[in-house]
Amino acid sequence: MKERATALMHIRSAGFLMVLGIVAGAFGAHALEGVLDERGMASFETASRYALLMGAALTGAWATGEHRGLAWVQCGAWLFSVSIFVLVADRYWSWGYSDVWGPVTPLGGILMIVGWLLWMIRFGKRG
User: Fold this and answer.
1) What are the φ/ψ torsions at residue 33 (nearest 5 degrees)?
2) How deeply is 65 buried, as exposed, middle or buried, from its count of CB atoms within 10 A (0-12, 13-18, 19+)?
3) Separation of alpha carbons 47 and 104, rounded Å
4) Are the C-beta atoms of 43 and 88 separated by less than 8 Å?
5) Distance of CA 29 to the CA centre of its chain
6) N or C: which end of the chain has fewer CB within 10 A?
7) What letter would DSSP give residue 96?
8) Angle (deg, nearest 10), helices 2-30 and 38-63
9) Full-model pTM
10) How many Å apart are CA 60 and CA 71, to the nearest integer?
């Protein structure tokens, strides 16, 4: 029963990442054009794209039955994308959070890389 609950949590989180990527991408394309500068738009698009792609990749990887490393990817994807959204907002509204959220983005990237490496190394070695 615990394994099923864990699987549901991971799949739902991956699904929410995809929804975040779609909604943020549409919001950025329609509501933020002309509001953010070119750098801000590029960052917002990167965060949206990573959320969408990582959500889809996590869903597919989870379906293979090999789960090692995927929690790292999931955590990293959330940290990476959300931190970029916060940094873009901070640059626009001057909240003063860039010192806090700035280091979170590369941490999220590292977690994604390590997680995918763990998954790739383990993939196919079940038995």
Assistant:
1) -65, 125
2) exposed
3) 13
4) yes
5) 19
6) C
7) S
8) 150
9) 0.91
10) 14
The residue-averaged pLDDT of 46-68 equals 95
* Residues forming beta bridges with residue 36, ordered by sequence position: 33
Instruction: Determine the Cα angle at 114 with ends 113 and 117, to 5°.
Output: 85
How far, in Å, CA of 97 to CA of 87, rounded? Answer: 7
DSSP result, 28-80: HHHTSBTTB-HHHHHHHHHHHHHHHHHHHHHHHHHHTT--TTHHHHHHHHHHH
Residues 33, 120: Cα–Cα separation, whole Å: 38
**What pLDDT, in 10s, does the model give residues 107-124?**
999 999 999 999 999 987
CA dist 80 and 21 (Å) reads 12
**Per-residue pLDDT tens digits for 9-36:** 999 999 999 999 999 999 999 999 889 9
Report the SS3 class of residue 95.
Answer: coil
> Could you tell me which residue, 6 or 86, shows the higher pLDDT?
86
Q: Strand pairing partners for 33?
A: 36
For residue 127, the model assigns a pLDDT of 54
Q: How do the domains of the chain map onto residue ranges?
A: 2-122
